[in-house]
User: Fold this.
Amino acid sequence: MNLPVKEVLQALAFPALGCTEPAAAALAAAAASSLLRGSSIDTLHVTVDPNVFKNGLGVNIPGTGGRKGLDLAAALGALIALPEMKMQILQNVDARTLNRAQQLRDSGKVQVSLNREAAGLYIRCQVRSSADALAESIIQGAHDRIVHLSLNKEPLVHSPLLQTSRPSAESGPSSLESWLQEQSLFELFELTNDIDADDLDFLKQGVDMNLALAESGLKQRHGLGIGRSLQELSRKGLLAEDMALKAKILTAAAADARMAGVDLPAMSSAGSGNNGLAAILPIWAVHDFLGCSETEALTAIGLSHLITAMIKTHTGKLSAICSCSIAAGAGAAAGITRLLGGGGQEISAAVNNLIADLGGILCDGAKPGCALKLATASGSAVQSALLAFSGSAISAPEGFQGDSAEQTIRNLGRISQKGMLVTDRTILDIMLDKQEQENDSNH
Assistant:
């Protein structure tokens, strides 16, 4: 497969409102509910894999005033029933819909089940109408990839909602992922030389979306207020506003807003909105600091998207490691290195530096605290790029580093997909224990 850069970028980056896991649950419910053609909903049952479950526990849902839960997200999606909205489906939440969704959930008619054996990203939604019709949808492999629809157990194989890919990746996500896995960092770097004016416009849309979230996070103390606090500390002279701090402030503020459920979309990267924040905003912050041209910055962001996605093909769509820190952080480090004037050798060193620095960061679900991790990743991306550009690079004999950045990424994939399976289950068990204790205290 030899895809043009335009198709690759538009397959990897798309707007998403709210955390992508609750949004995907809402999309699955909307797809199933739409088959019932307006019939009232009697019951709703959603089954998800462990990582979708983990990421849906603690994050706020847009339009709900700070409410949480995959059950509420699914109920909202089922009532909205507009699957063509894809990952922006939650922009249709209004007071009436929210009230109806809460009633549906509070009446015990919405169930969320955990399928511990499901591998990869998996969401199955069954909606039964008051007339006893049963509609089912399955999302698998990507947050907006609907692979199965049925009505009364009859598969709907010709539905326009079914997809194996987004329109811009006609050969399918598995082919795209296989292609990305085979690319070297230098080949991805070379691919960005083909970025044209249309690509730059698309990449700028992502910058504008994510900057809007950052601006919201700096104006108001959303979530933990990490970005705003860092900015205030800088203004008091307690922190020096260098490139690294500027990147931290911008990225963390956007994460503060997004994890708090602010009603603004993010441009995602490799299936994650927080990945998109970390892949884009540190580069934009450095561009402002260095005074580089907009075209240079956008091209660097294109490289960041490509490397973020390439790393995630090895580590998995969702896993026990924090891809927003490691995959998107490495993408940002590569983009910043390009902005500094580095070539393939320096970019490889920057990616290796960042993975060596942040390789142990765990994913314990989407939540306000993700802003801390994104601040760390942003700072490390700048540091890793500057060190690489200065000739300081981690070497192969150290830890799990490979002879090349590509080998390091493959080693990271082994750790993520094989070595950390028990870690992932343990993190989820801890989170479930906390949820059970919270439920018991509420009763």
Remarks:
- Confidence is low (pLDDT under 50) at residues 164-172.
